[in-house]
């Protein structure tokens, strides 16, 4: 006798997500938002780096360079991709 058939386990609740992205946001808007997020992170890491000294400062400045690289990559995508249904966000 299959006990699970007679008494199925209730489904597990989904893992709660604190942050979600609405599914209907256009790709161009997602890329723009990602670029703006990286720009803000760039400013924060640069400001913090100049409050530090030595190896900690160097590590943070290296992280800042990676952030800028991410910004440049997204900017290049925005410049080269075509978004036929591009819309401004409300």
UniProtKB/TrEMBL annotation:
Domain of life: Bacteria
Listed name of the protein: DUF6124 family protein
Higher taxonomy: Bacteria, Pseudomonadati, Pseudomonadota, Gammaproteobacteria, Pseudomonadales
């Amino acid at each position: 006798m299959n006990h699970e058939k007679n008494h199925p386990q209730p489904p597990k609740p989904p893992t709660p997500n604190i942050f979600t992205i609405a599914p209907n946001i256009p790709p161009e808007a997602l890329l723009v938002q990602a670029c703006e997020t990286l720009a803000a992170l760039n400013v924060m890491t640069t400001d913090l780096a100049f409050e530090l000294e030595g190896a900690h400062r160097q590590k943070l400045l290296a992280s800042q360079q990676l952030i800028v690289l991410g910004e440049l990559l997204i900017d290049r995508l925005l410049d080269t991709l075509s978004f036929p249904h591009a819309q401004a966000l409300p």
